[in-house]
Amino acid sequence: MSAAVAVRITDLHKSYGTTPVLRGVDLQVRQGEVTCVIGPSGSGKSTLLRCVNHLEKINAGEIEVDGELIGYRRHKGKLFELKDRAITRQRASIGMVFQSFNLFPHLTILENVVEAPISVRGLPRAAAVEKARELIARVGLAGREDSYPRQLSGGQQQRIAIARALAMEPKLMLFDEPTSALDPELVGEVLAVMSDLASAGMTMVVVTHEMGFARAAADTVVFLDEGQVVESGPPNEVLANPRHARTREFLARVL
Question: What is the pTM of this model?
Answer without folding.
Answer: 0.95
